[in-house]
Description:
With about 170 residues, this protein is mainly beta. It has 3 helices and 13 strands. A 6-stranded antiparallel β-sheet has the order 1-2-5-12-7-10, with no helix packed on it. A 5-stranded antiparallel β-sheet has the order 9-8-11-6-13, with no helix packed on it. Strands 3-4 form a two-stranded antiparallel ribbon. A hairpin with a 5-residue loop joins strand 1 and strand 2 (about 20-30). The protein is globular and about 50 Å long.
Amino acid sequence: xxxKIDKIIKELKLESHPEGGYFRETYRSEGKINNNSLxxxxxxxxxxxxxxxxxxxxxxxxxxxxxxxxxxWHFYDGSPIKLHTISESGVHExxxxxxxxxxxxxxxxxxxxxxxxxxxxxxxxxxxxxxxxVSPGFSFEDFELKSEKELxxxxxxxxxxxxxxxxH
Length: 168
């Protein structure tokens, strides 16, 4: 029997993502930014912006990773998601992305470029469907995923969240 999660994956044509969960790129701007005009150290040019669907289930998580660009998370459906960020100086924060404003959930959140971030579904036996917009546009050349050992050596005070949100 096909579950709601299976239907979402099928209908939105989602594929496995290296950090966990499922995704499909839905937008990549035609316009590009010349590398000479970019402030951060990019290799090559970048599209102005990109956007994906991103699905997590309570059986998986988005492993801590970082990109050079800002990334905007937009909540669409399912359980609220707990997004963890670790700043470049090692400060850990959590943000609840969802649509129940009276509970303090926010439907949109911006992760600053250079921050480590990962996410997990809050409710058991559920899923979270979100969108992620990156500007300048996402490129796997800007994607960094480290092991638990590597991240713990960078942020020893964040061992608990690093252990929970890295693939062992």
